[in-house]
Amino acid sequence: MNTQWQSFITAHGGTLDASTKVRFPDMPIEAECALCALGELGVIAIDGAEATDFLQAQLSNDLRELSDTHAQLSSHCNAKGRMLANFRVLRQGKGYRLILPREQIAAVLPRLKMFVLRAQVDLVDLSDEIVCLGLIGACMSPLLTDRFGSLPDSDNGLVRQGDECLIRIAGPIPRWLFVGPPSAAESLWQQAREKDAALAGGDLWSLHDIRAAIPTITAATRALFVPQMTNMHLIDGVSFHKGCYTGQEVVARMQYLGKLKRRMYLSEVALDQPPAPGSLLDSAGSQSGQGAGAVVDARLNAAGHCELLAVAEIAAVERNDLRLAETGTPLKLQPPPYGFPQEV
């Protein structure tokens, strides 16, 4: 983490663990107006004369859909179509920025570099130069409008002010992702605190991602899921018209020739400790050698329950016999807020 930003966080009562996850004293589990220090997020820069052609051949989404006012979700898969990572992609000049869990960069960056060969492309970890902040609640709208001149008018929309970027993120209440240099993050922080925004970390932001059914692939879930299993095709995370990329044949075959047997659902269970990403699901009626499913992410809410995202066999959901394998806790899975297509 940037030393200037780390000192700023510490001066405001925050502590960082080895993964750069930020915590504050008396940090709320939920808040209607919150400023989230997202130390867990990192940034990969892809620049160079052939950056577009290079990245277009590696990601599941179509870079041609990006613009100065639109970001997108995307993923990088292995040859079997399983996601090794997913991330937000935004255009930066003639290059691109990938925003993803910092823990994933040590695996993703060297893998992408394997495909560079003689291409005129530079890939750099910018995580120590860029700060990510999450801003939650309608309380932030006036502040952000004054700072950026306007707000993004749709999910994944973005606005810029100099070297600062603001992306609107889907969710049950308004929220935005700020990406910018430490000095800009510090001034935004001070403005948000003047609005009495509660200080929070990545857990609150992840809880809102869960409620919006936006998956995050971590080291524990790497190579477990084809994009459609986590509904990435339903949230502007996959293009089926862009052409070839690593794993594209498998992803396309599932879309056009196969039948989707697993997809991602939400659940809330009475547990005081959230199951770890990758935790397995059991179903008495499942005949799959891969198990009945797995947890994508989970967080505690203010009621003391656990909210989670899980990829599960559709048949097991319909039988209503799913449980967490480790604890035996029954799971009642619900569709995501954006729903499922009628034909799926």
TrEMBL record:
Family annotation (InterPro entries): GcvT/YgfZ_C (IPR029043), YgfZ/GCV_T_CS (IPR017703), YgfZ/GcvT (IPR045179)
GO term, biological process aspect, one: iron-sulfur cluster assembly
Source organism, top-level taxon: Bacteria
Family annotation (Gene3D superfamilies): 2.40.30.160, 3.30.70.1630, Aminomethyltransferase beta-barrel domains
PANTHER family: TRANSFERASE CAF17, MITOCHONDRIAL-RELATED
NCBIfam families in the cross-refs: ygfZ_signature
Full protein name: Folate-binding protein YgfZ
Organism listed in the record: Thiorhodovibrio frisius
